[in-house]
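Holo prediction. Input below; ligand is D-malate.
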Amino acid sequence: MKLNENFSALSESYLFATVAQKSAAYAEAHPDKKVIKLSIGDVTLPLAPAVIAAMHAAVDEMGRKETFRGYPPYEGYEFLRESIAGYYARRGINVPAADIFVSDGAKSDCGNLPELFDRDNLVLVPDPVYPVYVDTNLMAGRKIVYAAAAKENGFLPMPDESVKADVIYLCSPNNPTGAAYTKEQLQKWVDYANARDAVILYDAAYECFVQDGAARSIYEAKGAEKCAIEMCSFSKTAGFTGTRCGYTVVPSALVRGGVSLKEMWFRRQSTKFNGVSYVVQRGAAAVFTEEGQRQVSDNLAYYRENARIIADCMDGCGIFYTGGKNSPYIWLKCPDGMKSWEFFDYLLNEAQVVGTPGSGFGKNGEGFFRLTAFGDRDNTKEACERLYKLLKK
Ligand code: MLT
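Structure of the complex:
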């Protein structure tokens, strides 16, 4: 038998797993030191009370014969799909409930969606970006081309007519840079994709952080329903990193070679996925109630304030950074020409602060570093005090 040799193209370990291993090893060797993690984008505030109440009620339903539920529908319960469609509608975007697939999170969907495409497609990925896009396509043996995101283009690469991409990943607001496309910029990507029959996989996991009028959905662009799949998540919006729930829109109008991608996705999901639990879906639906929306926006305001604290610290240190406005991440230039992993070690050893090395998000991330605003407030402040002491000129 032969193993999947494509795995040899991957780095030895997944970025966030490497970061976790290194910081755990440091903490074990220095039990007297308090290590503060501003690395993986994991939330620290508890679930909103409206979510908890809905989940409690759902647990009770599961405990009574008359209201007990077995397998959930493959594509999600109607009540949740309708609530998600309503969330789009309130932003003036028409996404029918029938085109929405509920899942256990955007990461799974973004890792699984490439199964719809032949191995011989050319995949276009921004650099830097969330490493799952690259790793999952490398595992499948696909050829990847990169669209450079740098200071010069505002970290927002635009289509290049000379590149004949078939599958295009976009992440906006971008993880890790925080740069967010406007509707007009997305229109250019949609026109490019439609002109060459390509498909856009749009990761909107951070849409709820947009504050300056940037786009929050690819479907704000005209004709996007003919070329784009959108993934979104309750993780960052409503603190579901440990609860697990997300959704993906595969429009009925998205057809390639006479085949409906929505039907293909239903075929894939119904074969390999048995849905998200009733209790979790009830909790997710509560996010869209008036009360739920108020509570989750309070949590988002808390994280935004953390981002402001980190940004102020960078200003004080005279360090170039971007992000933190339309996203929970601060993307900073490592001082003194340090490389990303060099800076990681420096901060860990000298300040016991853990961040994510920019080079883990792609070649163009080398020399950059990402800090998350999802931490606890006191820890964020303490980390910033340590960083200021260490890095101020
Ligand atoms: C991140 O830190 O980039 C994210 O939390 C990772 C993820 O969502 O899987």
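The chain is about 40% helix and 15% strand. That is the main takeaway for now.
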